[in-house]
Amino acid sequence: MNEDIYKKSLELHAKYHGKLETVSKIKLDSKEVLSLTYSPGVAEVSREIARDPKLAREYTLKRNTIAIVSDGSAILGLGNLGALAAIPVMEGKAAIFKEFAGVDAFPICLDTQDAEEIIKAVKQIAPVFGGINLEDISAPRCFEIEERLRKELSIPVMHDDQWGAATVTLAAFINSLKLINLKLENPLKLEEVKIVLSGVGAAGVATARLLNVYGAKNITYVDSKGIIHKDRTDLTKEKIELLEQSTALTKEGTLSDALKGAHVFIGLSKPGVVTKEMVQSMAPNPVIFGLANPTPEIMPEDAKEARAYIIATGRSDYPNQINNSLVFPGAFRGMLEENIPQFKIEMFSSIAGALADSVVDLSPTKIIPSMWDKDVVNTVSETIKKFK
What we know:
CATH topology of the largest domain: Rossmann fold
Structural class: alpha/beta
Helix content: 40-55%
Oligomer: single chain
Shape: elongated
Radius of gyration: 22 Å
C-alpha cells in the first residue's frame, strides 16, 4: 500500500483534531428559544418522558443515534491497540453513518477488555441510544458480548466485524457462483461447491453461519493450527458448532491440503498464508477472497497469475472490495426508522441477496456494488424494513 496515504491521513487528522463535532439542530439565537430548549421549558419534556419512557424516542436524539462501542482489542488488521487508538477508527465509522445514511453516531471507546464490564457499561449508556454497533472487539469475547446484549437490551445490537463483513462476503459468493456456472457445461449445485474458510474469528464465524443459512455447507475450516476436524481437543464452542454443520470430510492437515480441489477460498486470517501453488491446486476457475487487511492472504496480482478467476479483497485499491460499509449504514437506518427491536440472522442473509441482485453488468471484476452506489443504503434499509 502507498505509504504516502498514511502520512496524508496523519496530516488530515492533525488539521481537524478528529472528524466529529457536536452541532445543535436548534439555533440558540434568543432568550425565548433558550428557555424552550433548556430551563425552564425542557422540564416538561423530562416529565413526559418520566411518565412514558417510550417518548424518549420522540423527544430526544435517541430516535436516530447509534453508539459505536469498542475496547480496541482488534483494531482493523492491527490487533490489540487499546481504547485510545480505537478513537480515530470509530470516529471514521461515525462519519460514514452520517454521510451515507443520515444516522448520528458517536464513538464509545471503553478502557476495559473484560466482557462483563463491557456488557455492564453498554447497558448503562443504552438509554441515550437507539442502537449499539459493536466494533473491533476480539473473538471469542465478541460472541458472548453481542449475544448477551441482544437478550438484555430493547434496542438493536450488531457486531459489525461479524455481520457486516459476513453479509458482503455472502453477496460476493452468490454472484461468484453465478459467474462460475456460466463457464461450466454442468453447473455446480450449491451443495457441491467446495469452500475453504481460513480464519475462524469474529468475521469467520459469522460468515460461516450466513453461508450455512444460505445452504452452502461444504466448508472446510482452517485456523492457526490447521484444518479443524473432529479429533481436535482444542476447539471453541463456535468451532464445534461450525464443524457439526459442515458436510465436508475433514482430517488433520494444513491450509495447503484443504485448498486442493476447492472452488472458493475465503480468507479472514493473516497476510501471505496462500501461495500461487495453492491457488493452482484448486478447481478450475477458482474464487479467491483474500480479506485480511491491509495485506491480504495473497496479493491479487499473484492470485491472477496463478489463474484465479475471481479475486476480492478488503482494499479499495483493487476491484471487488468486500467492505462492511455496504451494510451497517443502511441496516441501522432501517432498524431505527421502523423501530425494530433486534437483528436476526435472516436479515443479513436477505441483505446479501439484495446486494447481489443490485449489481448491474455482473463480471469477474464487479461482483458486488460499491459503497459509492447511491442506491446501496436504500437497498439495505428497505430489506431490513420487511422484517418489521
